[in-house]
Design brief:
- This protein is an alpha+beta fold.
- It contains 21 helices and 12 strands.
- Strands 1-10-9-2-3-6-5-4 form an 8-stranded mixed β-sheet. Strands 7-8 form a two-stranded antiparallel sheet. A two-stranded parallel ribbon has the order 11-12.
Length: about 425
């Protein structure tokens, strides 16, 4: 590996938000070293706006917590600190140094990781990072980049290279296989031949993916504007068999949902991993053909969600979102329409409507009904009411029953005597 190189004035520090600069400065003012590291440095060098900023420091998590009173320490094996800022959460980690855990040979591959022994140094810390382009450290104050592994050279030639032997690094942590595809999908970096071969030969390690980490990884990978490119790479390297084995790579609704998500990210609109799951597994729920029975619909939806739950940890709010989105399909498609006003006011109406429109575009739902729901959201309230009346069931007038004349108290007494 190349020796340490220092590069000056390659980054315009004006691109770094003031809130991030203040966090770094506060650590420096308290006598600790602090630098930007990882993806934010890579993105600044590539000329793209970083989604988030990571800071590495010589302070321990508890020392960081004392400086930033409202910070939150998270993690078990390696604790990091989340500090809220104007741009979101800034993640602060401590310089690490390595020690090899002693494990039983029969232990799954995912546990064969290097355990961090706090506190390390920048020179030791870089050895625990996965790819050369993510092992660049940036000193804001001096505008200097520290490069131990030739990351700048790899950025220049637009290539993604592992630090050390790829197979060894993937055996240490199988989630690095996903990270490799994440970076090539997100950027225009190309895999080195050695790394490309390892992704093919080591994919069986994906059977050791940890459900909670996989859930976090997928949300991070699929909700940042490159979901469709990532899905194509999952198919290319046959990763789908370990993550979404029930989903075909050319499934039309899946591809439409991925495309829609990327477009929403570009327009600055909110996106949800739960919506993607609703699209991915819609056909599994639809094929059960259960309608107009609330309890049966919920049980059927929960049964379908057991399929991805075998590999991905799904939070309760994600499950509820998917179930409600699926159940809304029948309510939106029903004609005559019952309780249309209530349907419009449902919490997940927009998600249900979006899924209906995607299905209609693929001839899986009635296009006229989808267009009707589009129109009713655009017209004034008075016109909404008229549209709802036109598709509501006709109420039959009940015939009035002739009531018997009410008996007086004298008649009741006379009858009982």
């Amino acid at each position: 590996m190349p020796k340490l190189k220092r590069h000056k004035n390659l980054i315009d520090t004006a691109q770094i938000p003031n809130s991030v600069r203040r966090i770094v400065q506060k650590l420096l003012d308290n006598g600790y070293d602090a630098k930007l590291v990882g993806g934010c440095v890579r993105d600044l060098l590539l000329g793209t706006k970083p989604k988030d900023f990571d800071v590495v420091t010589s302070a321990t998590p508890l020392q960081v917590k004392r400086i930033f009173k409202h910070a939150q320490i998270i993690g078990r094996r390696f604790r990091i600190v989340h500090v809220k800022s104007e741009i979101g959460v800034v993640e602060i980690s401590t310089y690490r140094k390595t020690g090899i855990d002693r494990k039983d040979p029969a232990t799954p591959t995912r546990s064969l990781v290097r355990s961090p022994k706090q506190v390390g140094t920048m020179k030791k810390d870089h050895l625990l990072r996965d790819f050369t382009v993510n092992a660049l450290y940036f000193d804001i104050k001096r505008n200097v980049i520290f490069d131990y592994v030739g990351g700048l050279r790899d950025l220049k030639y637009r290539q993604l290279r592992c630090i050390g032997d790829p197979e060894t690094r993937f055996h240490e942590d199988c989630h690095r296989l996903l990270r490799a595809l994440r970076f090539v999908s997100k950027t225009d970096l190309k895999l080195t031949e050695e790394l490309d071969r390892s992704l093919h030969s080591q994919r069986d390690l994906l059977q050791h993916l940890e459900p909670h980490r996989l859930s976090y990884d997928l949300e991070k990978m699929l909700l940042h504007g490159y979901a469709r490119a990532l899905f194509r790479n999952f198919a290319k390297y046959k990763f789908l068999a370990y993550i979404f084995p029930e989903i075909e790579s050319n499934n039309a609704l899946t591809l439409a949902a991925l495309k829609n998500t990327d477009q929403r990210v570009k327009r600055g609109k909110p996106v949800r991993f739960a919506f993607l799951l609703a699209a991915f597994y819609w056909h599994h729920y639809r094929d059960l053909n259960i309608r107009n029975d609330r309890e049966a619909e919920i049980l059927a939806a929960k049964k379908v969600l057991e399929i991805p739950s075998q590999r991905i940890a799904l939070r309760a709010d994600v499950r509820d979102f998917v179930i409600e989105t699926w159940r809304l399909q029948a309510k939106l498609e029903n004609r005559p329409l019952r309780n249309g006003k209530q349907v419009l006011q449902r919490k997940r109406f927009r998600a249900g409507y979006d899924l209906l429109c995607m299905r209609a575009n693929l001839s899986d739902a009635n296009q006229e009904i989808a267009s009707w729901w589009t129109k009713i959201q655009e017209v004034p309230e008075t016109e909404q009411e008229q549209m709802l009346k036109e598709v509501s069931p006709v109420r039959k007038r009940k015939s009035k029953r002739r009531r018997k004349p009410r008996r007086t108290s004298q008649q009741v007494i006379a009858a009982s005597s």
